[in-house]
Structures are given as structure tokens and as C-alpha cells.
Specification:
The protein has about 290 residues and is of the alpha+beta class. It folds into 2 domains: about 140 residues, Aminopeptidase (3-Layer(aba) Sandwich), CATH 3.40.630.30; about 120 residues, Gcn5-related N-acetyltransferase (GNAT) (Aminopeptidase). Helices cover about 30% and strands about 25% of the residues. The chain is built from 9 helices and 12 strands. It has a 7-stranded mixed β-sheet, with helices on both faces. A 5-stranded mixed β-sheet has the order 8-9-10-11-12, with helices on both faces. It starts with a strand and ends in a 14-residue tail after the last helix.
């Protein structure tokens, strides 16, 4: 697919695509527009330094449009995409979005925001396939972000002991301990490495948490409070499911899937899991002896 900048000769096509019945039903603004108003908007848009409009073409036919609006803070850009109705169902939306993002990012290092109606499952699937992560959940729309600086993951070694201890000291919620272990106990724990996979999570070279997978396919996610947000938890979950496979099922011992253990008082994280559509499967209670 060829991705090019829009020109005044694309004005009528964009107008027709915008007023398409299905497009309007899935748009956050479903009001039909008049051609004269559209023409004024489009002519002005081509001159704006904060707006970039790209057209995708296949075999010299216009596939659709992808627009980027750099917001006031100039640290984020909002993206929207619309397809020529004649190309629906042909699997070209992902290619259009990917190509337009690549062209935009060649000259802009920004987070990219997308706002999509919750009922627009097809668009949600395409954007998530392109690396977007859910930022928050509204009643009618979902905000997704393609972050410029993604989370980084590395397997934990003894060299990470100090970072892990510092993260442990500021942890707000815990399942494994009620009192802070000594540094010696902590070092011994790290050296023994009791998990199948144990990873340190960092953002812009700053350690922000850990994640582990146990022998029974249970997962533990521990991140500092300021990173307990859907956009970061989503990245962790995507990394886990794309990098590792659950251990083989053993009836009554190991389920066939990964599952997350969460402290019952960590209501914020539980709310995020619900927002990300994770299925609730059990509730655990401690027996006091």
C-alpha cells in the first residue's frame, strides 16, 4: 500500500467517506456534514502544522484516510482512521493504519491517542494489533494509547537485588509477606529465584515493578502506585501472553491458563483487570489457625 499526504483533490472522497452511514454510526460525532462546511474544514486542515492527513492507495485506488492531530501539549497526537466503503472486509485497515503511523513517526516522537466507540469491535481489534494499549474505559468510548516509550522487561538476576528491595519497600499491597524482610533474607530469596519466570519491569530506564510466573501458572504483578494504570498493566499482560506459554494442565493442580493473584485490598488493580475484560475465576480466603 502507498501512503501519501492528502491534497485538495481528495476533498470529495473524504466527504463521501465521512457521511457514509456505517462510518457515522461508529463515529464519536454521528452528525452528517454539509459539503461546503467540509470543504472549508479540509482546505484549512491542509495548511495546519498540527494536522497530518494521509491517504492510502492500492493499485491507484484510494483505500481510506488516516489523520493525526497534534494536541496542545505537543506530547501526544490523536489519530483517527476512515475507510473507503468499497474496501471494507478486505483486511486493509490494519495496513493503512500501520503505514500511516510509520510515516507520521518518521518526523514525530509522540504518544498517539485513539478514541473508539466501545461497540466498534473491529476498530478496537485493529488498533490493539498495531500496539495500542487501553488507557481508560468510558461508558461509550475507549481511549487507547500507542506509547512512544514502552515498558521494558528483563529476567531478574542477582544484580537486580537492590532494585527489587527498593521496590519492595514502597509496595502498597502484598500477598506474600506482612512484615518487611531483612536485606539478607531478601538476597537469599533472590538467589533462590523460586519462579519459572521472574522479570524486572522498567520505564525509561527506571525500575517500576516486577512480574513472575509460578509453576502452577499463577502470575504476580507488582508495580509502583503511579504505574497502576490500564496502559501499563495492558503492556505487561500483552508481553506475558506473547512471550510465554502456560505449563501443561494437570487436573486439580495446574490450570491450562495463566491466572493472576492479587491482594484483596488492591481495589485499584482489580478495577483495572475488570476494565481490561479479564475474567474473574475465584476468590481466596485465609483460614486463621
Amino acid at each position: 500500500m502507498i501512503i501519501r499526504e492528502a491534497s485538495i483533490y481528495d476533498c470529495k472522497d473524504l466527504f463521501e467517506w465521512r457521511n457514509d452511514a456505517l462510518t457515522m454510526s461508529m463515529s464519536l460525532d454521528s452528525t452528517p456534514i454539509l459539503y461546503e462546511n467540509h470543504k472549508k474544514w479540509f482546505t484549512k486542515s491542509l495548511l495546519l502544522k498540527s494536522r497530518y492527513i494521509y491517504i492510502g492507495e492500492l493499485n491507484e485506488k484510494k483505500v481510506g484516510v488516516c489523520r493525526f492531530d497534534i494536541l496542545d501539549a505537543k506530547i501526544i497526537s490523536e489519530v483517527s482512521i476512515n475507510l473507503n466503503s468499497h474496501f471494507r472486509g478486505q483486511g486493509v485497515s490494519f495496513e493503512l493504519l500501520e503505514g500511516a503511523i510509520k510515516k507520521f513517526k518518521a518526523s514525530h516522537s509522540l504518544d498517539i491517542l485513539a478514541k473508539i466507540k466501545r461497540v466498534n469491535k473491529a476498530s478496537l481489534k485493529i488498533f490493539k494489533k498495531s500496539g495500542f494499549h487501553q488507557r481508560t474505559l468510558f461508558e461509550d468510548e475507549i481511549e487507547l494509547i500507542l506509547p512512544e516509550n514502552t515498558l521494558k522487561f528483563k529476567s531478574i538476576t542477582n544484580d537486580d537485588t537492590d532494585d527489587l528491595y527498593n521496590l519492595l519497600k514502597i509496595r502498597s499491597h502484598s500477598i506474600s509477606h506482612t512484615t518487611m524482610p531483612t536485606i539478607d533474607d531478601h538476597k537469599e530469596f533472590v538467589m533462590n529465584n523460586p519462579y519459572v519466570h521472574w522479570l524486572k519491569v522498567s520505564h525509561i530506564n527506571k525500575p517500576i515493578g516486577t512480574v513472575y510466573i509460578s509453576e502452577n501458572n499463577s502470575v504476580g504483578i507488582n508495580v509502583i502506585e503511579s504505574y497502576s494504570l490500564p496502559i501499563y498493566i495492558s503492556q505487561i499482560l500483552d508481553f506475558l501472553t506473547s512471550s510465554f506459554k502456560p505449563k501443561q494442565e494437570k487436573k486439580s493442580l495446574i490450570p491450562e491458563y495463566f491466572y493472576i493473584n492479587t491482594s484483596s485490598d488492591n481495589l485499584k488493580l482489580i478495577e483495572i483487570y475488570n476494565a481490561l475484560s479479564l475474567e474473574k475465576i475465584q476468590v481466596s480466603h485465609k483460614i486463621i489457625c
